[in-house]
Amino acid sequence: MGNKGWSSLKAIWPSAALVIILLAAWQLSVNGGLVPEWQLPSPLSIWKEIIVSWPRLMDNASATVQLALIGFAGGALAGFILAAVLHLLPFVRRAVYPLLVVSQNVPVIAIGPILTIWLGYGVLPKLILVWIVCFFPVSVAMLNGFKDTDLGLRNYMRMIGAGNWTVFLRLELPNAVTHLFSGLKIAASYAVLSAIVAEWLGADKGLGHYMILSSKGYEPARVFAAVLLIVLLSLVLYGAVAAVEKLVIRWRPVKGERKG
C-alpha cells in the first residue's frame, strides 16, 4: 500500500471504527431485549430484509433515481441561468434576490400540496419540487463566484476595451466554476431527499412510496432498508459531482501540496 493509500486509511479509520461500534451496540441492544425488534429492527434484520426485498428495492429505487437526476439537472440549470441573469442585470438582482431568499424559508413539505392542487398527481409537480430545492444552492454559489472575481483583473480588462459580455465569459464565468461545483454538491445532497418528499405527496412507485407502504404495514425493517438505500444514493450522487469537479478543475492546487 502506497503513501496515498495509508493517508486515506488514516483519514477514514476513526469514522469507520465509530460506525462499527455503534452498529455492534445497536445489535446487542436489540438482542438483549433493551429495544423491541418491532420498534427498532437490528442491523442484521435490516440486512436480511435488503437481501429478501432487493428486486423491489431496485425497482422503486430506479424511479427515485430518475426523478432525482432530472430534478437535479433542471434545478442546476435553472440556478445557473438565474445567477447569470441576476449578475448581468443588477437592477433585476436588487428586486429578485430578496424574494429568492424568502422563498427558501417556505418548507418543501408545504409547497408540495400546493403544486399538487395546481398541477395534479403527475410527475411534473414532483419535478418542480426537486427543481425548487436544487436551484437555490447553485444560484447562490454562482453569484458568490461572480462577486469573488479579482477586481484588478476586471479593471484591466475594462482598460483594454473589453465589454461586459467579454468580461463575463473570459473572467467572471471561469472564476465562478469552483463555486458552481460547491453549489452542485449541496444540490446533489438534497436531490434524492427532495425526490423522496415529492413521492410522499402522491406516487405509485419510488422509495418514498415504498417507505409509506412499509410503515403502514408495520414493517420497520423495510423502512430502514429504504432509508439506508436513500443515504447510499445521496452519497453516490455527491461523489459523482465531486469526481466531475476533479476532472474539470485541474488548476486548483491539491491541499497540502508544496510548491517547488
In a nutshell, what does this entry contain?
This protein has helices at 3-31, 43-52, 54-88, 90-103, 108-119, 123-147, 151-159, 164-200, 207-216, 220-248.
What's the layout of helices and strands?
Elements: H1 3-31, H2 43-52, H3 54-88, H4 90-103, H5 108-119, H6 123-147, H7 151-159, H8 164-200, H9 207-216, H10 220-248
Features:
single chain, mainly alpha, 81% helix, 0% strand
Low-confidence stretches: 253-260
Q: Specify the helix fraction band.
A: over 70%
Structural class: mainly alpha
Number of strands: 0
What is the CA–CA distance across the termini?
26 Å
- Calculate Rg over CA atoms: 23 Å
What are the secondary-structure elements, in order, as H or E? Answer: HHHHHHHHHH
Taken as a percent bin, the fraction of beta residues is: under 5%
Number of helical stretches of at least 4 residues: 10
Name the overall outline: globular
The average pLDDT is 87
Give the biggest beta sheet: none
Any overview of this molecule?
The protein is mostly helical. Helices cover 81% and strands 0% of the residues. It contains ten helices and no strands. It has helices at 3-31, 43-52, 54-88, 90-103, 108-119, 123-147, 151-159, 164-200, 207-216, 220-248. The chain starts with a helix and ends in a 12-residue tail after the last helix. The model is unreliable at 253-260 (pLDDT under 50).
